[in-house]
Specification:
alpha+beta; 6-stranded antiparallel β-sheet; 42% strand; globular; disordered N terminus
């Protein structure tokens, strides 16, 4: 490996990658509409379609949302169910979106909490 490349790798290793300046947001970047938040990086259009089929959220203009996911059942094979509901509020001051969430598990149990993004 050339000397200048080793120096660059060492510098990045010690200091980390450079941080880019980010513009302050005046509102949440998550706009009303249909959203999917895959847990793994999607590489192809087929991956995107599978992620949207398995789980998606509908965001409303007032911050409320519902999350729909596929659930496998013994009788009907597959059905969609409301997996979570909630409301998100974006703070311009600290650039954080805080969401109150109510999640329904496959077994019918319910979890409530708050998420900060």
């Amino acid at each position: 490996m050339p000397r200048h490349v080793r120096a660059l790798v060492l510098t990045i290793g010690l200091l980390g990658t450079p941080t880019l300046a980010r513009a302050e947001l005046s509102e949440s970047p998550i706009k009303p509409g249909f959203w999917s938040f895959p847990s793994q990086k999607t590489k192809t259009a087929k991956d995107v379609m599978a992620s949207c089929r398995d789980h998606f959220e509908i965001r409303f203009g007032d911050g409320h949302f519902i999350g729909i996911q596929l659930q496998k059942t013994e009788r009907s094979g597959v059905q969609r169910q409301v997996a979570k509901v909630g409301r998100c509020v974006f703070s311009r001051d600290n650039q954080i979106e805080t969401c109150s969430v109510r999640m329904t598990n496959y077994d019918g149990s319910v979890l409530t909490g708050t998420l900060r993004n």
